[in-house]
Please model this.
Amino acid sequence: MDLKQLHAIVEGGPHGSFAAHLFDAVIGVAILIAIADAIVMTDPEWAGAYGGWSQLIELIAVGVFTVEYCLRVCVAVYDHRARYRHSLWGRLKYMASPMAIVDLAAILPIFVALFLPLSTDEVLLLRCVRLFKLLRYFSAFDTLAIVIRNERAPLMAAMTLMGILLMMIATIAHILEKNAQPETFGSVPRALWWGIVTLTTVGYGDVVPVTPLGRLFGGLAVVLGMGMFALPAGILATGFAEEMRRRNFTASWNMVARVPLFERLPAFQIAEIVDLLEPLTVERGETIIHEGDTPDGMYFLVDGQVRVLLASAPIRLDPGTFFGEMGLIEQAPRSATVIAQRFCQLLWLQRAHFDALMAQHEDLKSTIEAVVRDRRARQRPPGGGA
Ligand code: CMP
Model:
């Protein structure tokens, strides 16, 4: 088995083969058992009774996670992101990525304990970092990270406003209450505790204003808090819903009928093609096609923008166009690298379906062949021979 096949297993994810699912399942179960063990062993009674088993579990878990970590670093060069392609720098960059750091942290407790005397609390904390390994199994987490990035400007504005409000409220409460309750409102930093508990409408009730003016102001602060502290949640919820809508698009009849290549086909044939196309989303900057790779399918650009890196000059492709057809038609390696310029919605037609479609529709085949001839001509440097 070569590294590329290994990559398909290790990083196959939800669309991977049976082996990829098995790999994910083994790691997933190992994470859950290791975490359950770490949690249960915080109980002195359990620790006393099953301490030996716990050590064995920890040893096996670290073994599994170490093999997993080494495999992920080895195969990182086959990631679709161009930045990991270099055999040395690519792997080092991968090792510095957030998920690789979490993977490393998951095996650290035992290795660190070999050199440094760690307290049980420190070991427990390190073992609990393994919880973050579960994030790999939820693609929605990536979406959340993207939402936070997309909405960072309004989120920062809301946070700054909250900070200003908190400082103002703590200062005014200090002025109004300092004589009556010097212990809790004697300074602005002391009044901050009341401010945060009030603005977030948690209201522990351990510190409350007692003067009439202080109480009046406290009521106002609660009302303000309800409005202001709900803002980030609102921003995130809307951003999340919008991002999910963009990602979970499905190939629809309308979408395919709007692709210029298919627009002249009768309705029932379009409906057949809809079933063959797989919706796909690609982040800005991701490499969709690598020059020299063996073609496995072609892409229709529904939304977004891609850039074809040609030796002469890069070419931009807009929605409605297709790419990745040359390798399939000419049965040759990919002739250029194609990168997403923006977040893209694509429809993917895998090679077997492409071949079947071309055999069925002579007219489609000749249209694509004409495009291939035209693109091939434009790939040649000006003044270059045939
Ligand atoms: P393929 O060779 O399979 O992979 C790279 C793709 O880039 C290629 O198919 C075309 O779809 C696309 N491509 C190559 N040259 C051009 C061009 N001159 N204009 C537009 N697209 C191109």
